[in-house]
Amino acid sequence: MEHPSFFLPLLLLTIIAFIAVAGQPYNNITLSSFLTTTTAGSRNLSWLSPSGNFAFGFLPLPTNSSLFLLAIWFANLPNTTTLVWTPNRERPLPPNSSVILTSDDGQLSLRDPSGTEVWSPGAPEAAYAAMLDSGDFVLAASDSSVLWNSFSDPTDTILPTQTLSAGTEIVAKLSDDDFSKGRFKLRMQADGNLVFYQIAVPTGYQYSPYWAANSLMANSRLVFNVSGSIDLISPNGSVLSTLTSATTKSSSEYYHRGTLDYDGVFRHYVYPKLTAVAGGTAGWLLMDFKPVDICQNLITTLGSGACGFNSYCSYDMKQMVTCQCPVGYSWVDPNRTYMGCKPNFTLPSCISRVPSEGFQMVRIEKLDFPNDNYDQFNVMNEVDCEQQCLDDCFCAASIYDGISNCWKKKFPFSNGRKGNYISRVTFIKVSNDNNLPSSPLTKKRTWILPDSIVLTSSIVLNFIIVSTTLIYFHVSKRKQSHQLNDNVLGPNLKAFTYKELEEATKGFSEELGRGACGTVYTGYLCPELTGTPDLAVKKLHDIHPDIDKEFTNEVKSIGQTHHKNLVRLLGYCNQDTKRLVVYEYMSKGSLASYLFSRSRPPWEQRVKIMLGIARGLRYLHEECSTQIIHCDIKPQNVLLDENFNPRVSDFGLAKLLKTDQTKTNTGIRGTKGYVAPEWFRNSMISAKVDVYSFGVIVMEILFCRRNVEKEMEEEKALLNFWVSDCYNDGRIDALVEGDEEAMADMGRVKRFLMVALWCVQEEPALRPTMGQVTQMLEGAMAIKPVPPSL
């Protein structure tokens, strides 16, 4: 038995913490006080804690600003909202909803616009309410006794001084931007054990536990100590075990929170208070987490496992969970990866007399789907294990243990996990129609220089034949009127005649630049007068098989946009076979000419340009009524105005998506060096192709060099790989060598670099959205610690 003196310091600490909470100054919220949302989508003043550290009020959803959660959040953090509690996570409310502390019965009542009560804690006779500096919202009686508090009814987060008693649980949100109840919960059980469960969405069915403290002492509690540790405490006050610890970060200097994140991992975060007060953007720092490896811990007999069905779980270098689809599969919903992956082909059928016809097996090392086998063979070699599945119309995958055992699996797969700790090999059955990379087993660096991409002779021959035919057909039709519908192109744009533009450009005499689709010329509104240019006139090539498609794409896509970081379209010419588009003139030229000149542009100017491009792409992807994928983001297609504000231009290759689309099929587009890997797999493409290109541009802007420099030594020739190597080796200073301005701002250099590396990940699902990219660049969103190596 331990000596009683062992418990004395802990007892004193508990008493001091209690006194500190009880003695906090209350900003009393009197009866009849209320808060409402407004029809404009904003919110009125919230109820703040005495120090202003926490706020209680309405927050708009990040995905829909016209719906609101009643919430408690950290009020002092700049450019970010970290929610810690909400009672209506399953039912966000529209504008004109309200919360009121009623005068007749002292109830806290959340009501919709019609006045119908949506939620109440059920604690009548309150004399007042208060938002405490601990982050706890309380309803108190006239004698100051607590009738109800938010700490007793947590959501997915706990704070210092908070306790989870027997029967209390927290439930993770569904995804990063969806606060609905998700797939995981942490429960403090009556038997004293702290247990993590996976649960079904939306029923809440509880699967088997995937982590437990294994400490059985009835009436134990989980206590978040002010010292920075989260401990399992016995009824007599002894520490049974520690869930997480961040005791090196004093709660007087750091905000602390413990959150069960949407991926099922409980993480302990801290945020420096001085940074928050100064208006800085440090972001939440990850200090500790449980379980250490959810991919290995979470193996269930029912359900999909840590990731969705047909996907697999792995970890990056900082133990951050990533879920991925196997080769030949793609996400059911890229924004809701917990829904798993679907095959990009029709599943095998036993109707065929030859089961293997039309299918092939893809070998993936260190991947396992450990449960739900329907057949097993022993003794068998790897080749026969692969062939057994290929010849079986029921089999969707086979697993080989590297020794003598082989298992066959039906669709769908569950509990997928991938890592160096796995010795098994998985064979996935896919259609022969899937254009698979030559080696899907191991990600290898492909050193492809711009002038070394060689197409097969058959493709070249077919291309020549088709192109020749189309050009002949086009030339034969040149004398005929070929007028497109101006209303389709843009009724609000000026329709120029060819003669007007010929005069404006002085007979197309001053060339600004040229590309695959056409040539750009300087234009003047008054060409007879000398002065500064006013227009940039792009003349599409006359003899071009896709001229009308390129022209329509450019006019329709840019004509419906209005953003300060997109070039403004003034009009077009659609006369006979003549196709021209007219833009405002950008006096500072292209980013390429500015960035790759002899003198290095100022650091702050480069930062401004990065942020501007990101905001322009975010607008195209997330804020337009019709989502636009640019498909050709590169420095040559970013123009600079007189104040060096970046403007994304050249929408000739853009792809417009319908409102219900997230991906599209299209041929390879873009410019070598900036093209995302999925283009070469002939798979569906999404807005993530622009994210990849943007990541390349960020690296070029950071280090003022092109993404490919053949004259450099081999390890530096390809910028992406060199940057990744330097980052992983802790040699970021080598990247900015000689750039004194950047070296004086290494904090932002590292942040921008990490964002760029996440953007250029080979798997589109690992790349952030442009909305997330913008927030991370601005410091409004924390960045995942370490991007996987390229």
Structure explained in plain terms:
This protein is of the alpha+beta class and about 800 residues long. It has 4 domains: about 10-290, Agglutinin, subunit A (Orthogonal Prism); about 310-430, Hepatocyte Growth Factor (3-Layer(bba) Sandwich); about 485-585, 2-Layer Sandwich (Phosphorylase Kinase, domain 1), CATH 3.30.200; about 595-780, Transferase(Phosphotransferase), domain 1 (Orthogonal Bundle), CATH 1.10.510.10. About 20% of the residues lie in helices and about 25% in strands. The strands form 13 sheets. It has a 6-stranded mixed β-sheet with strand order 36-40-41-39-38-37. A 5-stranded antiparallel β-sheet has the order 29-35-32-33-31, covered by helices on one side. Strand 43 and strand 44 form a beta hairpin. Helix 10 runs antiparallel to helix 17. It catalyses: L-threonyl-[protein] + ATP = O-phospho-L-threonyl-[protein] + ADP + H(+); L-seryl-[protein] + ATP = O-phospho-L-seryl-[protein] + ADP + H(+). It is a single-pass type I membrane protein. It holds the Pfam family PAN_2.
